[in-house]
Amino acid sequence: MGRLLGVDYGDSRIGLALSDPLKMIASPYKTIQNEGSEKCLQSLQAIIKEDEVEAVVVGLPIGMKGQETAQTKKVREFATSLAILSLPIYLEDERLSSVSAEKSMIQQNIKTGHNKGMIDQRAAAILLQQFLDKQRR
């Protein structure tokens, strides 16, 4: 039984989250630096193999009014590049996931200024959990 990998794509960092093998709970996993698509793909391939990932859920940043943005286009291009992984790739609306991640850290008295990578991981977990919850309905 494989896991799902949640991806919060950003120009500087990429936050990652993993589901449990039963695909019920998403947890923050790690943050990788965005050093170009080739390096990102190598990092993701290693994670996919090591953690027995069977599908990837990429957060799609849609504007608050439902419109596509410049970042939406970048994420769609990134998701297309993931086809080389030979796994199902799903896009999940990630509106406000980073805001929710930051708020949860503030509630736990975790400083957010120097923990941008942690915010990215939590945002990936939020969008992955949203996807998992939809699958169960």
Rg over alpha carbons = 14 Å
Number of helices: 4
| Overall tally of structural domains | 1
Major sheet attributes: 5 strands, mixed
CATH class type: Alpha Beta
Shape: globular
**Helix content class:** 40-55%
- Average pLDDT taken over every residue: 86
Judged by helices, strands and strand pairing, the structural class is alpha/beta
Strand content: 25-35%
The end-to-end span amounts to: 20 Å
CATH architecture grouping = 2-Layer Sandwich
The tally of strands reads 5
**Fold-level CATH name:** Nucleotidyltransferase, domain 5
Order of helices and strands: EEEHEHEHH
Notes on the protein architecture:
About 40% of the residues lie in helices and about 25% in strands. The protein is globular. It has a single domain, classed as Nucleotidyltransferase, domain 5 (2-Layer Sandwich). The relative contact order is 0.23. It is built from four helices and five strands. The longest helix has 21 residues, at about 115-135.
Q: How do the strands and helices of this protein lay out in sequence?
A:
Blueprint: E1 3-9, E2 13-19, E3 26-33, H1 37-50, E4 53-60, H2 70-81, E5 89-93, H3 97-107, H4 116-136
Parallel strand pairs: 1-4, 4-5
Antiparallel strand pairs: 1-2, 2-3
